[in-house]
Every structure is written in C-alpha cells, then in structure tokens.
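Build the 3D complex.
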Amino acid sequence: MLFLLGAFVVLLLIVAGSRGFSLLFGLSINLVSIVALLILIADGFNVLITTSIISLIILIVAIYMNVENAATANIAFKTSILIVVIILIITVPLEFWASAQGMGFEDQEELESFSLAAGVSFPQLAIAIIVVNSLGVISETSVAISSGLNEIILSKPTLTPKEVFSDGFSVGNKILSTQTNTLLFNFSIVLFNELFEL
Amino acid sequence: MKKNVIRIFAVILAVLTVTIITYFDSFLYKNPIIRIEQTQTIKKDKSTDEYKNTDTQIEQKLTGVFLNTNKRKQRLTLKNTYYQSQLLDQKYHVGQQVILSKSGHHYSIKNVKRDTVIVFSLGLVIILLFCMQFSRGKLLISVLLNLLVYYGFVKLLIHNNTNLLLLMTVITSLLISGIALLIILGPNSDALMAYLSTVSATTLSILLSILLLKLSGNSGVHMELTDFGLQPYFSVFYSQVIFSVLGVILDETMDISSSLIEMKKEVNDVKEKVLFKAGINIGRELIGPLINILLFIVIAEHLNLILLYLSNGNSIGYTFTMTLSLGFAQLLISAIGIVLTVPITSFIASKIITRRAY
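Done.
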C-alpha cells in the first residue's frame, strides 16, 4: 500500500507540478475531516449536526484553496451550500419513502458477529451518506462553473446576464458528461459483489 | 424556449404515469404483498449491550390488506420487532406496501416494495437532465448500451465458473470503452485516438500497480476481505479495479482529446509541443475533482459498516483495516491511472492531431 501511495505522490508531482501540492493538501484535509466525522458520530454526537459542521469545513477548504479570485470563491461557496440544501430537500423524502437506511438483506451473514443494537440512528446516517457522497461533486462543479464564467466575463465584459447564464449551462453540460462514466462505473462495482452472490 | 417547456411537461407527465402504474402493479409479483393500514406499538425494551451502546427494541403490530394473490382484500395481522437504530430491521409506516414470504400458513415480512420510489427517482433524474438542457443525447445512448453489455457480462459470469473472470473483465472493458467512444465521438480517427489512449493508460496503471503490490508483498491490502469473501480474491479485486479505473480514464481522455481537437480547429498551424502542453494543463485541472469524487464514493459506501465496527468497541486502526483497506488500494490505483492518463493522452493526441489538416 505504501508503495502505491508513494508512486501516486511522485507521479502527481511530476505531472501537476506545484499544483500537486495543493491537491495533496486538499485531499488530506478531506480525509482527516471524514475520519473526524466518523469518530464523533461513533462517540455519540448528533449525526446531523456533526455532518453539517464537517461538510462546511470540507466545502470551505475545497473552494477557498482552489479558487484564487475571492469574489468567485464566495459565489461558489454560496451556491454549493444552496445545492446541498436542495439535494437534501429532494433526497431525504425519497430516502424515507424507500426506507433505504442501514444495510440490505444480503449483508446479514457478514454482520452475524456484531451487536446490531448500535445506538446510532441509521436513518440519520443515511442522510449523512448522501451529503458526504455529493460534497465532492458539488464543490468541484460549482468551482468549475464559477471560475469558468469568471474567465468568460473577464474576456468579454459586455455580456448580458442572460448570455452569461446560458454560458454557464454549456460549461456545466461538459462537466456532466465528464463525470457520468466515473460515477456509473463505480456504482456498478458496488453492485458487482451483490450480483456475484446470486 | 417554448418548445423546451412543452418537452419538459411531456417528460413530467410520462414519469408521473409510469410511477402511478408501478404503484398498482402488485399483481405482477409472485410473493404476496400487503398494504399496511394500521400500526401499533406494543412493547418497548431499552437495553445496553456489552459495549455500552444504549438502544431500544420496539415491537409493533401491523395490520394490512392483501393486494394480490387469491387472498386479495383479506386482512392480515403481523408482528415486527426492530431496534430504534434500524440497521437491518426497520419500522413500518401506514401506507407502505410490503412484500411477504409465506412458509406453511405463516407469513413473514420479506422486504419493502420499492419499485415505485425507484422508478420515481429515475424519472426525477431524467426530468432534471431535460431542465438542464442536457445536450448529450449520445452520452445517454452509450450509457444505456454499456449497461446492457455489463448486464450480459454478469449473466455470463453467473452461468459460467469464475476462473475466466479476469479475462472476461478485460474483454468487457475493451468492448465497453469501444462502444462509448464510437458513439460519442463517431466512427473516425478521433475515436481511435481516444481508444488508444484509454487502453494504454488503463493497462499501464494496472500493470504498474500489480508490480508495486507484488514488490511490497501485498502488505496492507487484504484481498480476502472482499465482501462475502468472494473467490478467487486476486481476480475479483482486479476486476473491480479495472472497471473503476476504466470509467474515470474514459471520461478524462474524452475531455482532454476533444479540447485538443477543438484547439487545432481554431489555430490550424498549432505546434505539437504547444498541443502537448495544453493537454497537460487541461488534465491538471481534472485530476483533483476526479480523485475527490472517488474518495467520497469509497468512504460513503462503507460508512454504515465503519460505524458498526466502531460502536462494537473496535479500535480505529482495526476498523479501517477491515473496512477501507481494499477501497483505498483501489482508490490509489485509480488515482495513479488518473494521473498517468494526462501525459499519455496529451502525447498521443498531440502526435496524431498535428499531422491532420482541417
């Protein structure tokens, strides 16, 4: 594992240069925050409050470290929070409707040796999972769109708000197609094990 | 603009219709299904386990009406016990449709009927894509076709023995990436170029990681910890890695090479070196987002299990070894692939594109 890590770091620094350092720093902050989140929840802190605080930290680091222009960063930050809220409004009712908390029937065997009365609210944890899962995508997308638009406006200051709005769509469309396969393939790997069991 | 509004309305209408149909489709199921009409809490037991976790076990009485089979419209009363934390068991609500299994004359709850909510959520995604004026119809087609190929792959796996797993994975991935690129970029030299970069970047990163893992004697990577202990460990692990790496690299090469093609169209006499540099610059911006996405996916996937380990009195180190070590090894291999793709794609694309005239 250490060899893999070493190879990754070396390659990253060769390819990305100085940008590699800030990338590594951002990644480790994310990792540390998530570990902190897990430990706090396991120690009995409220799931939802802890998740929102940690998410704010992750968003702030991801956005303010990667965007040099302060005004753009502020916009990206505000939109990210807005999007997280909208996602929660859409997905939380769906999650309860589907009773999708906890683990599936197929995991029962694996869990035999555990005390299942964990005292952690798994429905609340399901919400935390949605937030954690979407954070990576949201912060990156909002940064990409805001800085992309910022550059467009700088090069053509005469654009009307309506034109800028439609430019944002075309930037966003490109991002949508760049992330589709990544998300889809990694989801299919999750299914991989379950399908295998059949 | 007006045309678009009409289109969105049509999509919304279609989604609603399909959702409503699945709500009444219980006659399609072989297992009996009831709709819960009444719930009542009978008993509450507060208990503390050996790790000082306090939880409440609750027993509820459920009354429901059969929706299918020859018992249609008859009533049934069931008991359900669950922990308040609801890890494997759950609380049932009035109005929920529940699938039962029957043994002898006794019914027990098998699962919640989830088809309505799944169809609705999928519909919601489609509606949102239409609202965003998502213009990449080709991408959707390629995704659908690839799901079909993947389904075939899994079917084949189930029917055959798993000795050929790795070989089949390689063939499937070659097929899937080929289909995606052919449909999205069209049957031309652009697609061939992207295919070449995708395959070589994937192969290189997988071979490199196999070599590195061999060198370190697989330390820290517990392949026997795959879910369900699937055999053979090596093939299962690497099949997952291949699919994971391929998805990311496919996105990355498409992005870099299409940007470079566009650049060549704008500046016809662009130099090979300039193109290569531009490719590296574009690629740099992609590395961070893609790795971050994978990181969050890996962790979110295991969140439930990690908390169960922690609340069962395990140390943090042990918990992470048992739950995340495989995921992280996969993540690192993907990350290496993501980084390697940037120079490989830029190199291949700049070589091929500069020779062309537009």
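Residues 17-101+120-197 of chain A form one domain.
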